[in-house]
Amino acid sequence: MGSPLLAIFSVLPVINAITIIIAGVVIGLCAFLSRASGHIPDWMIIPPLMMSGNNPPESVIYSSGFTIVAVGLFFSQFLLFLLRRAMLHRDIKPTDKNYPLRFLNVCEFSFSVAAIIALVVQAVIPVQKNVLYTFFDFDGIVVEQDTLTHETAAACWWLGEAVHWILNFILEKNSPQLSIFRKYRSFIFKYAFAAIGIICGCISMFAKPDLPAPKSKVLMYFHITNLCWWASAVCFFLTYFVQSWQSAALLDHLGIRSFVFGALSNNRPVYGEVPAAERYSEVEEGKQKH
């Protein structure tokens, strides 16, 4: 593993963190502008995420911002996938191919990419401008194709993120090579955020009133589902943010100096300098001595 490649991996934690900070700024700024511009009614406490980016000027920030976020997430998740792939080859018998966990790593990355693609679709295809009326079943209001596409992409994003973090948990919980993740409190925080995101997303998508229904009941369900979807999105992004520190710990474990997140030890061997068979023999010799 040459120095240029090490330099690329060294920026993983900071790229991951900056991407999530940009996501937070985009969400907050779009929500503020939608209210300041009068694009949402006064009774609405917090605008739905889909209504935070369907009118200019916030629509420009929404589309460009989340596209940048998607690119940053793909870059960081791809680097993390490569690091985990390398870790799954460490300190194992040469005859042990570790196929189940390696396949799980591929599946986890695939669902992450699917969620990122769904995020891009949401960014570039906004909902219709009168989307609020579709919530309350007004006569003559037709749900347009762009709205259906956006809402489908939002559901696919949530589903991709949910499966991605579930597979991520199974992989880190069952892999001896990735036990480094379980040694820090960030492991608990990361999956606590993921669990809250999954639960809130379920409530948001399935808690719907039976129409026709009284306006007060519809408004109650509207606020509940809206807040739950906000909580789901924020928790999923916070999960990625916690992952920045875990990435730094993984780089430290591999002996790679992490950019910005602290000077890490130079004495640990970088993965690739010692063949797997020699690493395994060293481990076995250490066991025999004890």
Protein architecture, described:
- With 290 residues, the protein is mainly alpha-helical.
- It has a domain at 3-81 and 97-129 and 144-182 and 236-279.
- 69% of the residues lie in helices and 0% in strands.
- The protein has helices spanning 3-10, 12-36, 58-87, 99-124, 131-135, 145-174, 186-206, 215-254, 276-289.
- Helix 2 runs antiparallel to helix 3 (58-87), helix 4 packs antiparallel against helix 6 (145-174) and helix 7 runs antiparallel to helix 8.
- It is elongated and about 60 Å long.
- Mean pLDDT is 77; it is low at 259-290.
Task: Describe what is shown at a glance.
This protein has 290 residues and is an all-alpha fold.
Q: What radius of gyration results from the CA coordinates?
A: 22 Å
> Which whole number gives the mean pLDDT?
77
Q: Which assembly state applies to the chains in this document?
A: single chain
Q: Which regions contain 5 or more consecutive residues with pLDDT less than 50?
A: 259-290
Structural class: mainly alpha
End-to-end C-alpha gap: 32 Å
Helix share bin: 55-70%
Task: Report the count of strand segments.
Answer: 0
| Percentage of residues in strands | under 5%
Shape: elongated
Q: Enumerate how many helices there are, as a single number.
A: 9
Summarize the helix and strand pattern as letters: HHHHHHHHH
Largest sheet: none
